[in-house]
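Moderator note: this is an archived Q&A kept for reference. The question asked for a predicted structure of one protein chain; the sequence and the answer are reproduced below.
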Amino acid sequence: MPSRLPNRAPVRADDAANRAFARHMMGLALLTPEREQTLARRWRRDRDEAALHGIVLAYGRLVLGHAARFRRFGLPVEDLVQEGNLALLLAADRFEPDRGVRFSTYAQWWIRAAMQEYVLRNWSIVRTGTTTMQKSLFFKLRSIRARIDQSGGARDPAVERERLATQLGIDVAEVESMEVVLAGRDRSINEPAKDGERERQETIADSRPLPEDVVAHAEIERLAHRSIEQALAGLSERERRIVVARRLRENGETLDSLGRDLGISKERVRQLEKRALGKLHTVLTATIRDAKDVLFAG
């Protein structure tokens, strides 16, 4: 009777293709120093694309190696490889073969820097680090935490914080602040909720007002605006001028100023304003109450 084989997750076509590509790149022979210099000079001097292709193809394994190390940040390896390939092209364009430095040494700096920038841009929607110190702290702190986890917690986190702060010349508080950032990874609102039956977005309360409330509020404001115009029309010309100048302008006039313009005392202006506001209050209260009764009837 044939033995039962364990269930295995199906291999996606793109995963298989990526692995095949990686095996092909890792199997390519590295360039000798002489061949590397020849190709670099041909590209720099003659812009020979065949020479550029030879350099990039030979050192594509550098990109794959760095992408494998940066994959622990949870970002797509394909995107990391793409960033690394762009950096490899940039390194080839700026490489100066006459300086006596191997291209692999020069290119690794560009590849690592490009992937670090990509991680910092995409690890969180919140800016993780902007200064050189913060970027260095981000990556070194993750390495230290990984070593502590591998040692089973034998290392003292407080001692490691102080050691890192001393090494970078910063306060321990800055290290602790970065630890908080690293601990608070972004979470998708599409991930399952605690009950396992819904997505997290379905449990988030919507604080916005209901559509019917928005419509009702807008209608009440429209009616109130029209009621104010009608109520003002019921005032005398002097009362209307006082209310508009005192209450309906951004910088209202003073009682003294209005008294001089109208040829009356400041106290008389105050009395007229009080009487006019009383009339407006009576009309508007009745109007708004009636409007609410109509809008919310039933």
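Archived answer notes: The first helix runs from residue 13 to 27.
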